[in-house]
C-alpha cells in the first residue's frame, strides 16, 4: 500500500523527518476499540472517495448518515474557511454570532423555542436525559425520575446514554448500570402503557430506529405514545441524531407524523461532517436548566455553528427535501429488484435516504459480508446489525453516482451468491 508522506519538524533546528502512515499504524498507536477496514481514505468530492492507493469509491454510507451534502461541498468549505479567518473559539462565558444565527434558524424551522449546542449525538442525548430528569425532579419530586426507552435502541456511548439504549452489548462490563431506566419493545404500545406510571419523567424514542435495524415507527404508534406521555405528565424525547436534518425527506422525521416531541436531539447530518449536535426544546422545559446546571466547553463553537448554519440553509429547501423522496424511490426499487434477483434480501425498509435491506433467511448474519464485498467492488455501504445492509448516502447524490454505486453493489451481490 502506498502511504502519504508528511514532513514534520522534530527538534528546535527545524529538521524534518519523513513519516509514512497507513492502516497498520492504527494497530500500533490507536486504542483498539475500532476495527477499521484496510483502505485509508484521503480525499472526497461529492459522493466519491479516494484512498491512499488512488482507488475510487462511491459513498452510499455517508459517514454513517453524517455527510448530508457529500464530501467537500463548496458552500461548506466556504463557510468553514470564512469563519476560520474570523473566530474559532470563545467559550460559553460569552456567546457568538454563528451560534445565535443557527439557533434562531432551528427555532424558526421546528417546534422548538430553545436550543442547547454540544459536539456529538451522545452529548445531545446526555443533555436531553439530564434535562428530563431535572424537569421530573422539579415538577414531581425525586420519585419522578423513570426514563423508558426501547430495546435495540441506540442513543450514544456515554454511561448514561448506553444505559438508556436497549442493547446490552454496549453496556456490559461498564456496570453498575444507571438505575431508573426501563426498556420495552419498539412499537409495542401495550408494553409501554404497562411500564408507565406517575414516576415516569420521559419516554425516549427514535422515530426511525437506526442501529436497531432501520425500522420506522408508525404514525399511529407515535400518536399513541404522545397521548400516554400527556396522560402521565411525562416528556416525549425524540432522538433524531440519525433521522434528522432532511434524512427522511422532511427536516425532521417527527414532521411526517404530526407528533410534536418535548425534546429533540440532532447531530450527524447537522454539521455535514463537522462535529456538532443540538438539543431542542420549549421555553418552559428549558427553564429547568438554570445557569450552571449543564454545559459544554466546545458546544456552540463558532466554526461548527457556521458550517451547520450553511447545511441548514441548503437542506431545508423544497429542492433538497423533495429530492430525497425521489432518490428514495430509485434506491428502494433497485434494492428490491436485487433482492428478487439474487434472493439475498427479504425486503427493504426505512424512510428517505435511510434505507435498510433485510437479509433473507438463507443469508441471515451476512450483512458484513455484503459490506466487505461491496467495498472490494468500489462502493461503501453500512450494516445495521448482522442482518441489515444500510444505505445513508448524501441527500444530494446525483444520478450518475447512484447508478454507479448500485451497479457496484449488484456486482458484490453476484459474488456473494456465486
Automatic annotation (TrEMBL):
It holds the Pfam family Aminotran_3. One of its GO terms (cellular component) is cytoplasm. The keyword Metal-binding does not apply. It comes from the Bacteria. It catalyses: N(2)-acetyl-L-ornithine + 2-oxoglutarate = N-acetyl-L-glutamate 5-semialdehyde + L-glutamate. N(2)-acetyl-L-ornithine binds at residues 157, 296. May also have succinyldiaminopimelate aminotransferase activity, thus carrying out the corresponding step in lysine biosynthesis. This is Acetylornithine aminotransferase. It comes from Halopseudomonas pachastrellae.
Amino acid at each position: 500500500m502506498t502511504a502519504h508522506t508528511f514532513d514534520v519538524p522534530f527538534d528546535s533546528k527545524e529538521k524534518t523527518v519523513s513519516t509514512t502512515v497507513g492502516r497498520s499504524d492504527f494497530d500500533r498507536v490507536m486504542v483498539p476499540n475500532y476495527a477499521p477496514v484496510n483502505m485509508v481514505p484521503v480525499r472526497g468530492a461529492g459522493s466519491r472517495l479516494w484512498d491512499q492507493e488512488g482507488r475510487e469509491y462511491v459513498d452510499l454510507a455517508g459517514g454513517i448518515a453524517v455527510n448530508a451534502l457529500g464530501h467537500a461541498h463548496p458552500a461548506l468549505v466556504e463557510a468553514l474557511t470564512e469563519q476560520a479567518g474570523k473566530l474559532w473559539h470563545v467559550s460559553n462565558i460569552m456567546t457568538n454570532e454563528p451560534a445565535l444565527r443557527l439557533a434562531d434558524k432551528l427555532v424558526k424551522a421546528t417546534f422548538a423555542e430553545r436550543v442547547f449546542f454540544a459536539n456529538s449525538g451522545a452529548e445531545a442525548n446526555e443533555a436531553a436525559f439530564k434535562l428530563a430528569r431535572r424537569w421530573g425532579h422539579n415538577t414531581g419530586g425525586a420519585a419522578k425520575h423513570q426514563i423508558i426507552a426501547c430495546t435495540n435502541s441506540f442513543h450514544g456511548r456515554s454511561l448514561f446514554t448506553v444505559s438508556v439504549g436497549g442493547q446490552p452489548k454496549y453496556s456490559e462490563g461498564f456496570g453498575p448500570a444507571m438505575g431508573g431506566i426501563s426498556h420495552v419493545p419498539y412499537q409495542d404500545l401495550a408494553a409501554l402503557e404497562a411500564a408507565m406510571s406517575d414516576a415516569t419523567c420521559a419516554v425516549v424514542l427514535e422515530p426511525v430506529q437506526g442501529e436497531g435495524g432501520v425500522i420506522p415507527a408508525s404514525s399511529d404508534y407515535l400518536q399513541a405514545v404522545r397521548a400516554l406521555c400527556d396522560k402521565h405528565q411525562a416528556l416525549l424525547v425524540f432522538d433524531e441524531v440519525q433521522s434528522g436534518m432532511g434524512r427522511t425527506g422532511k427536516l425532521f422525521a417527527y414532521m411526517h407524523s404530526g407528533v410534536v416531541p418535548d425534546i429533540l436531539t440532532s447531530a450527524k447530518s447537522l454539521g455535514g461532517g463537522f462535529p456538532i449536535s443540538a438539543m431542542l426544546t420549549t421555553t418552559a422545559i428549558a427553564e429547568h436548566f438554570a445557569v450552571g446546571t449543564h454545559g459544554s466547553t466546545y458546544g456552540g463553537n463558532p466554526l461548527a455553528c457556521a458550517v451547520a448554519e450553511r447545511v441548514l440553509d441548503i437542506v431545508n429547501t423544497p429542492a433538497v427535501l423533495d429530492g430525497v423522496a425521489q432518490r428514495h424511490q430509485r434506491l428502494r426499487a433497485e434494492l428490491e429488484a436485487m433482492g428478487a434477483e439474487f434472493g439475498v434480501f427479504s425486503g427493504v425498509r426505512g424512510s428517505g435516504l435511510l434505507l435498510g435491506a433485510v437479509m433473507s433467511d438463507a443469508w441471515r448474519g451476512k450483512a458484513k459480508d455484503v459490506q466487505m464485498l461491496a467495498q472490494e467492488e468500489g462502493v461503501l455501504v453500512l450494516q445495521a446489525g448482522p442482518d441489515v445492509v444500510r444505505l445513508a448516502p448524501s441527500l444530494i447524490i446525483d444520478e450518475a453516482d447512484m447508478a454507479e454505486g448500485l451497479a457496484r453493489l449488484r456486482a458484490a451481490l453476484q459474488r456473494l451468491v456465486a
